[in-house]
Each structure stands twice: as C-alpha cells, then as structure tokens.
Design a protein that fits this description.
Shape: globular
Number of helices: 20
Number of domains: 4
Largest sheet: 9 strands, mixed
Strand content: 15-25%
CATH topology of the largest domain: Rossmann fold
Structural class: alpha/beta
Length: 527
Amino acid sequence: MNDNISLFWKSLYEIGITNKNNIMREALRVKKTASYIEGDINDEEEIYSTMKNKVEKELGYFPGDKDTFIKLFKIGWNFDIIEFTIETYKSDRTKMVIVPDYLIESMNKIIEDKDPNNILIGDAEKTLVGLEGIIKNFPNKKFTLLTEQKLMYDVLSFVFDKFKNVEVINQSILRRLNLEEKYDLIFSLPAFATKLYKNNLNCDFITKEIAGIAIENFLNQISENGLLYIIVPARVTFAGKEFSDLRNYIMDNYNLDSIYTIPDGAFKPYTSSRTYLLCISNVKKESLLLGNLELKDDHIEKGYSKSMDMSEFRKFDEWRIELILTEECGLIQKYKESSIDKVKLADIADIFRGKMLTKNDAAEGEIYVLNISNIENGEIVFDGMDTIDENDRKIKRYELLKGDVVITCRGTVTKVALFNGWDKTVIASSNIIVIRPKSDILSDYLKIFLESPLGTTLIKSFQGGTSVMNINPSDIGEMEIPLLPLEKQQELVDKYKAEFNVFKATIYTANKNWSNVKNDIYNSMIE
C-alpha cells in the first residue's frame, strides 16, 4: 500500500474525519482539484481557489481551513484513487465487499468467451480491483457501470471519464431499473443483506431481499441472447415462500444455464456464508451445468461438474446442488419422489438458536450451558458442563425443556441429541439450534430422522459455510420431514430404543471383558 494513503488517513483523523465515506469524499476532492489545475501544481493559492470555486460546488463544503487542505493536497494529489478506494474500504470490514482478483479474472475470461457487445456491471465499485484492466482489455465494447451510492458514482465517473466506452449510472437496484438499453452480459454481486421492509422499496418485487430483487431487476435488462452472471447467498437456492416463487419465475420465464459453488472464504472477512454463481439467460435449453469452482494457485478453475437434463432438474423444488452432486443423490431423489407425507420443520416445531456467550461469562452458577462438546454419540453428557451466573429472566427464552431436540449449527461435525430433562436448569449456547416439536411429531422420531444418512445430508445442504458449518435456524426450518402417523412414529422409536439399549449393553460388556483380559495379560508379565 502507498505510504501516502495511510498518511492521508492519519491527517483526516487528526481533524475528526473518520467515517469512510467522508474520507473518500476528501480524497476525491483532492484528485478533482488536481485535475482542474492547469498551471503550477505547487501554487498554493491556485490550489485552494480551484477547490473553493470549482470542487466545492460538486462535493460540498470542505471541513477545514486553507492550511489543512493544502496539507491534504500535497499528500494525496498524485496517488491512485482506485487503490485509495480499495484500501479504504478493505480497512472497514462492515461496509463494501471487494470482489477478489481471481473472480475479476473469471469475469475477463467470460467476456472473452461470450464476446458481448455491451456489458452492465452492477455495484461496480465492488469490482474496482481489476475493473480498469477489464475495460482496457476490451476497448471496443461498451461498459455500463451501475452504482446506487452517489459518492461511488462520483468516484467512478472521475476514474473512467477518459474512457469513451464507459457510462456510469447512479441508480438503486431497490427500484425497477428500466434502463433503455438491453445488455448482452450482466455481472452482479448484490449485498448479502437480510429482508427489507416493504416501505424501503419503491415497487413490488417477488422477494424483499436484495439478492432476489437484483436477480429480478437484472433479468429485465438482458438482451434476447443475453446472460446474467450473479453471485448469490445460499438462501436463494433453497429458501421457501418468496424465494421459491422467484425460482419458479426464473424457470418458467428464463433459462437457468448453470449453478456453481464459489470457493470457501471467497468473501471473507465480509461474510463466511456459502455463495453461488448463477448464470441465467433468455434462451431455453434442454440441460444445465452444475458444479464447483475451485481456487488453485490464485486462479479459479472448474472442479467437479455434471450436465443434467432440465426436465430432471425441475423435479427438485430447490437448487441445492450439493444434494444433486452428492453420492446420496439417489437417496434424496427417492425421498423427494416418494408418496410419504412431508412437512416443513418450521410448520411442526419452534426453532431457535441458543444464547450468545463469551469465555468471560463462564462462572460458578446455577445455570448449565449445553455446548458442542457436551453431545457425544447422540446423547447429552452433563458431566463437565459449563455454568454461568445469570438472572433467570435473562435466560428463560434459551432454557431447554424435556423433549427438545438439539443440533449443532457451528463447527465441522453435525451432532444431534434429545434433551430428556434434568434436575438443573440448562440453556443452549449459540452453537446449538433448539428444535421444540409440536403435537404432530414425536421428539425421538425427529431426532432419529435428523441423525439418519438422509437427515444429515439434508442438514449439510443448509449450512452457510463450506469447510466450517454455519446453519441459520430459519433456513433449517425449510427442511422437509417425513410425517408418518403417530402410531408408526412410536413403533419406530420403540424399535430404535430397544436395539440401542442392546447395542450399549453389548459395548459395555465387550469393553469390560477387554479390560479384564488386558489386566490379566499385564499381571502375567510381572508374576
């Protein structure tokens, strides 16, 4: 990183400017001022008067005196505004996502392969790492850069003013774009955000989440033979209700060309959630591609992939390609096509995550905390359980009740257990999801299903991360559970318990016998 960038930050911090957008505004102010100066770049009077008479009209009042601006100007007039923007937002991890350079390289390859005439890039500021290089590589193609932030519009307009094949548009994707032009190729990385309130939207969309809105908006802007490449969070592929409607809308009106998983950690530290690259077009096809993208030597390569008939793919209600690519795909398909009544978990149980705790919360107390390490072989181990000293009122909502099914939602291994009650107060930690069944399903039956090969495969398909599990309670509520009659459920539970007790007794006897044999052998060595 250019030393002048950190020096520029420090100089702004000294006058109380710490907000990233305000920092960017002052950097742009300096660069714009330098671009307007036709004479001596060291003439302080011309520098300051140019800023006051020209740039303040565009960027507003400068929050400092002449000496302060001259100091900033001398530090920053010659640095690269693109590098400055990237470094500024990289240091602010709660804000703008920066697309990694290996994904920018993939964009470059797609443009080479598809040879589009015009290209739209949504949230273009996120691609600043290699955006200028892409535009320089294709001087005969028209690029439209879309951004909803006025400041980013000013930055992009300044940077690409010298390029005749670039247009910058300041418009939010939360309203219908209705751009006059249709595009042969659209790239987008929408914000990984939660549901928006309806009054935040200017018109009706199928979904109220940014990723869904972006898909719907950009599909309306692709040309007859155009393609939309969009990176989306996992929820888009499996969530019910609105996202289910959106998936059906896409399948009925467009063509899903491919779905690829993005490498784990591609967008850290902004998010560790699983993400996918969707390609959608206007041209109907008989098959689609499903697979994984892999990162090798800082380059993206296609890993395992398969072609699937569109008619077969449409049998799946969801786009969770992990289920399709897994070795248990036949089992999943058999389950999906079976005549057994199925119900979403959220419809037959209350689901919530446990209480967030830190190491500092651990203390001698009357409240016991269930964590991942307290679940072994499908059972809860109470020995060694941590405790906290907390007011009952603050932990009541996290307290475990007899019959609760618990499942780990973080870590590397899925564990399931049934809480059969205890004479102590036990709460779940935030690493645990609690499932409280209603009258339609037996707790033991639900636990057995969740730990089955089918159940664990379904659970894995909902995890947000790839190498490290991160399951959202609302997501797992979308899982379909086979709803057998209560009598049949009880029959299976009784059989399971009886055989499990035999299994444990056999293991106990075998361990005891083995221990006795070893001791006899050890004693024979010294007698």
